[in-house]
Design a protein that fits this description.
The complex is a heterodimer of chains A (111) and B (114). Chain A is mostly beta strands and 111 residues long. Helix content of chain A is 0%, strand content 52%. Chain A has no helices and 11 strands. In chain B, strands 2, 4, 5, 6, 9, 10 and 11 form a 7-stranded mixed sheet that branches. A 4-stranded antiparallel sheet of chain B has the order 1-3-8-7, with no helix packed on it. Chain B starts with a strand and ends with a strand. The chains are: A mainly beta (111), B mainly beta (114). Chains A and B meet through strand 4, strand 5 and strand 9 of A and strand 5, strand 9 and strand 10 of B.
Amino acid sequence: GQQLNQSPQSMFIQEGEDVSMNCTSSSIFNTWLWYKQDPGEGPVLLIALYKAGELTSNGRLTAQFGITRKDSFLNISASIPSDVGIYFCAGKPYNTDKLIFGTGTRLQVFP
Amino acid sequence: EAEVAQSPRYKITEKSQAVAFWCDPISGHATLYWYRQILGQGPELLVQFQDESVVDDSQLPKDRFSAERLKGVDSTLKIQPAELGDSAMYLCASSLGTSSGEQFFGPGTRLTVL
């Protein structure tokens, strides 16, 4: 099935560093969601975005809905060890409540 | 606490056997989804229910997979017979069914077919 392109595929950073990742699509969406998945667990919803250009924060996380409606960005500031996991973006096309997921960004944080 | 419940968390079976997974969505969520997630990839939708009705099962391999949500609350996903390629994480999610698109996932069932 269709999956969105996420980059980078993986990141290895030191504790305290900031992190940026993005997600791109060939089609437009009216909702972008960001999830975090720990090993052996289900994805947990982090942030939801509903308008082009919208910038939303959740603690140290900030996400943006791209103005073209074809991309979204997630930033994590001052990373900590518990940020380790796989981050997935998901887009919702117009006139449907289905989600299309990205390929994931694996984040490793070293102390 | 509002959570999606799934059981079992882990299942090991031999090929050609039947397996079944159960999901209980967040109370009041009309829409229920079953996803399959292969290691290293994002979840892919298998079937979507609105109350007790199937809305989309276009990606469900119907020769061996079946899903039901008889009373519009909890749901069961069955595989019979299981094949080696079915080894994956099976995730259940639920939503209010509004235009927000927000879906909430359960912890998943990790299936290993030997």
